[in-house]
Design brief:
This protein is α+β, with helices and mostly antiparallel strands and 500 residues long. It has a domain at 330-488: Neutral Protease, domain 2. It is 29% helix and 27% strand. The strands form 5 sheets. An 8-stranded mixed β-sheet has the order 6-5-9-3-2-12-15-14, with no helix packed on it. Strand 14 and strand 15 form a beta hairpin. It is globular and about 65 Å long. The relative contact order is 0.08. Bound molecules: arginine (ARG) and zinc ion. Residues 318, 322, 341, 344 line the site of zinc ion (ZN). The site of zinc ion has 4 residues, from helix 4 and helix 5.
């Protein structure tokens, strides 16, 4: 809009603004946390990262990690100072080329004061030179940097980044990555995405990995060790890169018998969730004694202990389901963990049904019956479990019960449209439990407030399961269907979409 006349008062205000030095008034430090009530100090305020470029060197013998992080970001307020989350020793910080002052504070804050304040909306390039021995660093009394006999692994949730790269450590600020790590010849460095190149000089081999889709900080992984790397392409065309420690011993066969099925299982899950969201898939099994698995984006982390009892394709299904539910669509706050774990568990139930080992309905009935009303299991509300209960079995099992309750309430057609539509609706973004409810209500046309409250938020056992069972049994559409039938429905739906 053009203003023909400017009021004299406005002119006076404008000249006053010009007279005031830029550092005054509106410029303030970015918050030391991004605002997650479960973890108030995680992430930071005042800027938004678009890309991390990490160029590192790691010596397994001494656990020394050194290098440079170059972070591309944009300010989201008039900024006098900002924080990164980091634990290693910093020797220099530059912001837009100029040396910046820095200090540490709190448990894991690196406070950076640029030489001149940064107006809101400014693109910034932050270069952090650092080194350190990650295994000697802790915050809140713990470390999630796991050394192995031949290297180390960074893969944990919700904290893993502080030990190896400076970041805005919260899933709300996703970014693309180039991770380049030099390791002694004969050792491999595994990370997310695509292996762009390797090179060797002076006894060091450099691995250059690239993730070109937005990725949460906790889903960024690094493993160094002696690995056997396998490559293939799934029938559906997804490139697969897996890596196995050369020292898996008795677990080697079961690990490979599980993780080598990645391509097959990615294709199978695509039938339910839509096209695989990334340009590479795979997993790695380092020589570690930690006991969990983690859905690190495109390159899942598996502990060898997960295969101690034999092969475990169901676990692979769980972690691959997260690539859609958790990685492409990330949570907004850690309280929203159900949109990750409830669905990854439900994918395992779908796999069970596919394998003839129990239908989703049978499994829901079983889980419901196996926890009596006075079992503390029911005191955990998967829709907002609290930081201390974020990974309790209730988040997974009661979480999957809630998914089954949605299915029984809306019917299979709407349910499978929701299951496939959600990863498309929020692809590469963030969403909450409330967003899921709103989406499911929109697609199904049914109010789901009571159902969500009962299954996700009440700290007690729901009075009955499968209230709609009798009704559903009479409705042939609500009978469990094979993925081929679902795929037929979905591809018909996609044709409609394309026709629009
Ligand atoms: N998201 C992971 C999974 O469900 C759980 C990781 C739990 N973290 C841990 N340190 N145990 O596969
Ligand atoms: Zn999970």
């Amino acid at each position: 809009m053009h203003r023909r006349f400017i009021a004299p008062g406005a002119l006076a205000a404008a000249s006053l603004l010009l007279a005031v030095p830029a550092s005054a008034a509106s410029y303030s430090p970015g918050a030391p946390g991004i605002g997650d009530p479960y973890y108030p100090a995680y992430g930071n305020g005042g800027y938004d990262v678009s890309h991390y470029d990490l160029r590192l060197k790691y010596q397994p013998q001494t656990d020394e990690l050194a290098g440079t992080a170059t972070i591309l970001a944009r300010t989201t307020q008039d900024l006098s100072r900002f924080d990164l989350d980091f634990l290693l020793d910093v020797s220099e910080v530059r912001v837009n080329g100029a040396k910046a002052a820095f200090a540490t504070s709190g448990q894991h804050e690196l406070e950076i004061t640029p030489s001149a304040p940064l107006p809101k909306g400014t693109p910034i390039t932050v270069v952090v030179r650092y080194s350190g021995v990650p295994s000697t660093k802790s915050a809140y009394g713990f470390s999630t940097w796991h050394r192995t006999p031949d290297g180390a692994v960074a893969a944990d949730e919700p904290e893993a980044a502080w030990w190896w790269y400076p970041s805005n450590d919260h899933p709300l600020d996703k970014a693309t990555y180039d991770v380049s790590v030099a390791v002694p010849d004969g050792t491999q460095a595994i990370s997310n995405g695509t292996l762009q190149s390797t090179s060797s000089q002076l006894g060091w081999t450099r691995y250059n990995w690239r993730q070109e889709k937005p990725q949460a900080t906790y889903l960024t992984t690094l493993a160094v060790g002696r690995f056997d790397i396998t490559t293939s392409t799934s029938e559906g065309g997804v490139p697969v890169v897996n890596a196995y420690s050369k020292d898996l011993g008795d677990q080697d066969g079961a690990a490979r018998a599980s993780v080598e099925r990645t391509g097959e299982l990615v294709d199978w899950l695509s039938g339910y969730f839509g096209p695989y969201p990334f340009s590479s898939a795979g997993g790695y099994v380092p020589d570690t004694t930690t006991g969990y698995a983690l859905e690190t984006q495109t390159r899942v982390y598996y502990s060898p202990r997960q295969f101690a009892g034999g092969s475990n394709a169901s676990l692979v299904v769980h972690e691959l389901a997260h690539q859609w539910y958790g990685d492409s669509v990330s949570l907004k706050g850690w309280k929203d963990i159900w949109i990750n774990e409830g669905f990854a568990r439900y994918a395992q139930w779908l796999w069970s049904e596919h394998e003839g080992e129990g239908t989703t309905r049978e499994l829901a009935d079983y889980v419901y019956a196996s926890h009596p009303a006075d079992d503390p299991f029911w005191t955990v509300a998967p829709g907002d479990p609290g930081a201390d209960h974020q990974f309790d079995s209730a988040v997974y099992d009661r979480g999957a019960l809630a998914v089954q309750a949605v299915r029984e309430a809306v019917g299979d057609d709407a349910f499978f449209a929701i299951l496939k539509g959600w990863p498309r609706e929020h692809a590469y973004g963030n969403a909450s439990v409330a967003d899921f409810r709103a989406y499911a209500e929109r697609i199904s046309g049914k109010p789901l407030d009571t159902l969500f409250d009962t299954w996700l938020f009440q700290p007690q056992k729901p009075a009955a399961r499968g209230a709609s069972l009798a009704e559903a049994a009479a409705d042939p559409v609500a009978q469990p269907r094979s993925w081929r039938q679902i795929e037929a429905t979905n591809s018909a739906h996609e044709h409609e979409e394309r026709a629009k």
